[in-house]
Design a protein that fits this description.
Blueprint lengths: L12 H5 L8 E2 L2 H10 L3 E6 L4 H11 L2 H10 L1 E6 L4 H15 L6 E5 L5 E5 L13 H14 L1 H17 L10 H11 L16 H14 L2 H16 L13 E2 L7 E2 L2 E2 H18 L2 H18 L7 E4 L2 E2 L2 E2 L7 H7 L2 H10 L22 H15 L7 E6 H18 L2 H18 L10 E3 L2 E2 L6 H18 L2 H17 L1 E2 L2 E2 L24 H16 L2 H12 L2 H6 L5 H11 L3 E6 L3 H10 L5 E5 L19 E6 L2 E2 L6 H8 L1
Parallel strand pairs: 1-3, 2-3, 17-18
Antiparallel strand pairs: 2-4, 4-5, 6-7, 8-9, 9-12, 10-11, 12-13, 13-14, 15-16, 17-19, 19-20
């Protein structure tokens, strides 16, 4: 029987991009490995995601090539995985790739035995020889030759890799030293361009969150300086879309000028929260502008018809990375009157900062005529709309939508935009109705077009979405959001904790070659850090010692990382800051937009806040009554509360 490509029925946009390849791709499944055992053939596992530039390159060069596809089909069982849909599979084989090659990345190309054990790993392989790299065809032929002549060695390599990596589970223990973390970050801080380390620079959103919380609690000038300078330089550089808002995934240089152009939901959700917090602390106009523009980007460019938020915008259009975003002076001149064009070329440094004489727009300083800039910005945005729009990965990921829900609720209340809260509620409702299996309580990781995918939720999905529900509950007082969050977190305790440690996959999920467990906060927060945050909030709302201990247990997983590399424990450190500051609880009996805004703006980030009618069935609201028939706020720690206040200015003074 001739093998066929099975990806046309997938719900993943990334997999569907490969549905027309002549490669006989399978999705990750028991059936695919059963076929490998039946054929006694190695498995070629290719992992990527829809917005990945080099994934597109390798697909065009090799997976669309008929001769290469025929060789793959004859000799391998070929499996395609969307890393965003299956982070568990990605985590396992990325760990193997890094261990075997010293580096990782996407596309990830891993060769497995029929028992799913990796014996050869790499990332991008070119079709033609270049820079001393082996071609993809050379790699394939060498592996098939070895499969036939050195099979015992290959099987031995696979078993040893699995044994060694499976033994490298992360032991929990210890407290996070917050002051020491700031000291270590100071030594790694770039005092000229902001950020940490050198190129490429990723937006350190979780570290910035920690530093802002640290400043709020301790008054640390170093913490505020590092956060402020980084936030400003990122926002003024080319990594930020000066026309439509939203941040690219990272900067390839150390000055935030040239981005890798894909835009990810998780980055923009996390950075929206950072800039909202920066504005709440500083009142800096730039912080408010960037927060509002980033929120608008989420609502206008990533929101799906079902009310969720899409995963990403692609880096490439018309076969070129960044083509949609960059400008030449001639293109500026064609879009604007002569005087305006000359002004913008100078203002936005259109001097050939990218490729082929084009530039990414920067805004290194506020224009002297803000109204003129806003008018021109709209004109350029309109002119850009005639270009081919980047591809959009419109699958909805539960974890990333959870981050967006939390960020939009906070920004909506702090900045006074009720439409942000409405959008957050729409996304939360989509996850609740489509992703949560009402019969089992299981959370599905993804959906597309309102239909749930088959991948089970991992720890980050449960925790991030639960935190989003708790934040939304705090604003609406709708008990369903609290009940949804509590049920998910109770299931997380049952399914993701074993032998005193948190794991990234559920106990009842598919059994893989080992059970992934990674507390590192990388581009997005780790599941265990998000669990620490959600359990801290839930403990504050309920007074439950069980949830408080669950938060402490989760947080301890990051202690070793924070002690040596705090850049990779940003969310854990931020949650530790919340615990060190109290944590505070604010109960608002009745409804008062002024009290609610004061609470969200002036309380430390991470404070558990709930507004609702007296009698709301949550322990924090027990016996919280109106005073003189007016809404009042109770500021509490460990359920011991100050006298209630009805004036938002008095509440502000209680909180600062």
């Amino acid at each position: 029987m001739t093998p066929v490509n099975e990806l046309g029925r997938s719900t993943s946009p990334y997999l569907r991009q490969h549905a027309e390849n002549p490669v006989a791709w399978r999705e990750w499944s028991a059936a695919a490995f059963a076929e490998a055992r039946e054929r006694d053939a190695p498995v070629f596992l290719s992992v990527g995601y829809s917005a990945c530039h080099w994934c597109h390159v390798m697909a065009h060069e090799s997976f669309e090539d008929v001769a290469t596809a025929e060789y793959l089909n004859a000799n391998f069982v070929c499996i395609k995985v969307d890393r965003e849909e299956r982070p568990d599979v990605d985590a396992i084989y990325m760990a193997a790739t890094v261990a075997m090659t010293g580096q990782g990345g996407w596309p990830m190309s891993v060769f497995l035995t029929p028992e799913a054990e990796p014996f050869f790993c790499g990332t991008y392989f070119p079709k033609d020889a270049r820079h001393g790299m082996a071609t993809f065809r050379q790699v394939l032929e060498s592996l098939i030759e070895a499969w036939g002549s050195k099979r015992d060695q290959i099987d031995g390599i696979g078993r040893r890799v699995v044994e060694q990596l499976g033994a490298r589970q992360h032991a929990a223990g210890g407290d996070l030293d917050l002051d020491r973390a700031v000291e270590l970050l100071t030594t790694d801080f770039d005092p000229v361009d902001g950020g940490f380390g050198g190129a490429p620079k990723f937006p350190p959103s979780m570290v910035l969150d920690f530093l802002l919380r640290q400043h709020r609690r301790t008054g640390s000038a170093d913490a505020l300086r590092m956060a402020t300078e980084t936030c400003e330089r990122m926002a003024r550089g080319g990594m930020y879309d000066q026309l439509a808002g939203g941040f690219a995934r990272y900067s390839v240089d150390g000055q935030w000028v040239i981005p890798h152009f894909e835009k990810m939901l998780y980055d923009n959700a996390l950075l929206l929260d950072v800039y909202t917090q920066w504005w709440a602390i500083s009142g800096e106009p730039l912080a408010r502008r960037i927060a509002e523009e980033t929120a608008e980007f989420l609502l206008t460019e990533l929101r799906t018809p079902e009310g969720g938020f899409a995963s990403a915008l692609d880096a490439d259009t018309e076969g070129e990375e960044g083509r949609y975003y960059v400008w030449t002076p001639a293109e500026i001149q064609a879009a604007l009157p002569v005087e305006d064009a000359a002004w913008v070329v100078e203002l936005c440094d259109v001097t050939g900062t990218f490729e082929h004489g084009s530039s990414v727009l920067q805004l290194r300083q506020d224009p002297d005529d803000a109204d003129r800039w806003q008018r021109i910005r709209k004109q350029l945005k309109q002119a850009r709309s005639s270009r081919t729009y980047p591809g959009r990965d419109d699958k909805v990921v539960a974890a990333w939508n959870g981050l967006a829900i939390t960020a939009l609720v906070r920004a909506g209340i702090v900045l006074g935009h009720s439409e942000y809260v409405d959008a957050a509620a729409g996304a939360a409702e989509l996850i609740r109705t489509v992703h949560v299996d009402q019969a089992t309580g299981r959370l599905h990781r993804t959906s597309r077009d309102g239909v749930a995918g088959t991948a089970h939720g991992v720890l980050e999905d449960y925790a991030a979405y639960a935190q989003g529900c708790l934040t939304l509950f705090g604003v609406t007082g709708e008990i369903e959001w609290f009940e949804t969050a509590q049920a998910l977190l109770d299931r997380a305790l049952e399914q993701f904790v074993a032998d005193g440690s948190y794991f990234d996959t559920a106990a009842d999920a598919e059994e893989l070659v080992w059970r992934p467990q990674d507390p590192t906060d990388n581009a997005s927060p780790s599941g265990v850090s998000l669990a620490a945050e959600a359990f801290t909030t839930l403990a504050s709302l309920t007074g439950s010692v069980r949830y408080e201990q669950a938060a402490e247990q989760a947080l301890s997983a990051s202690a070793a990382i924070a002690a040596r590399a705090p850049r990779f424990a940003g969310r854990a450190l931020a949650v530790a800051e919340t615990i060190a500051a109290g944590p505070l609880e604010i109960a608002i009996a009745g409804r008062s937009p002024q009290l609610l805004q004061a609470a969200f703006t002036h309380a430390p980030w991470g404070t558990a806040i709930v507004q609702g009618e007296p009698g709301l069935a949550v322990p924090l609201m027990a016996e919280r009554s109106l005073v003189d028939n007016q809404a009042v706020a109770y500021v509490c720690q460990k359920f011991t509360c100050q006298l209630p206040v009805s004036d938002s200015e008095v509440l502000r003074r209680q909180l600062i």
